[in-house]
Write a structure and sequence with these properties.
3 helices; globular; 3 strands; alpha+beta; three-stranded mixed β-sheet
């Protein structure tokens, strides 16, 4: 990502939007990190902690993270996770408070 003012302000807007969803992720032992905002205005994120191995991560991404970002930052056209866990992944684990 380049460091011009447009990208910096977009990144700030995305981070501000994520403040609303982060407490829910942290409750389940997870978090996320913005890796980049592409020139096409797609936010690439990495799911961290419990979110990185949770079979619900694709739903969390679409219903929570993506909606929070798209609602708050209309310039963003999409959100992609680089490490989404498939629900049928044999290594996927639900957070302990969901067992």
């Amino acid at each position: 990502m380049s460091n011009d003012n447009k990208d910096f302000s977009l990144n700030e807007k995305v981070e501000e939007a994520l403040k609303n969803i982060r407490p829910y992720l942290e409750t389940d032992g997870g978090d996320l990190r913005v890796l980049e905002i592409t020139p096409e205005n797609v936010v690439k994120i990495e799911l961290l902690g419990a979110c990185g191995a949770c079979p619900m991560s694709s739903m969390t991404l679409k219903a929570g993270v993506e909606q929070a970002i798209l609602s708050a930052v209309p310039e963003i056209v999409g959100v992609e996770a680089v490490n989404i866990t498939r629900p049928d992944d044999p290594h996927a684990k639900l957070p302990e408070n969901m067992l």
